[in-house]
Amino acid sequence: MSKNALIDKLVTLVKPIVSGLNYELYHLEFVKEGNENYLRIYIDKETGGISLEDCEKVSRAVSEMLDVEDPIVEAYYLEVSSPGIDRTLYTEEHLQKYVQSKILVKLSGLLDGKKKYEGELIAFDSEELKINSEGHEVSIPRSKVSSVNLRGEL
Q1: Which of 71, 76, 128, 133 shows a CA-CA span of 20 to 30 A to 31?
Q2: 3-20 and 52-69 are packed helices; what angle lies between their axes, rounded to 10 degrees?
Q3: What predicted TM-score, i.e. pTM, was given to this entire model?
Q4: Ordered structural domains, the chain, with CATH
């Protein structure tokens, strides 16, 4: 099974469990680091932060399902956590939720001599992100974006 197919299957299996516990499946990834495989599940909720108890509850429920369904053939570690205050914005829904929030955009190449921009997300579409950076509106082509992170403030 391809990695993308595995991720799709895992999302299909994990999302109802996470939703059933009243959390949002923010992101899921299956990565190899060194000789170890990790299934990382990031959860969120509408109000308040994610606690250690929240992560434990989701981890137990997902672990039970994975033991039964057994979709991953190789050995792996299961990690459940919050996406964090400086969370990566992966989807259109994530971007929409954080319009008018401060973000950090890292680029795959230079744009006007810079590899990263920080500012308030004003708008976005399939072609570009528009941010207010140091009082100037900057249009960043989506094709140059390598990652977008929320710049959380406590």
Answers
A1: 128
A2: 120
A3: 0.87
A4: 3-81 (3.30.300.70), 92-150 (2.30.30.100)
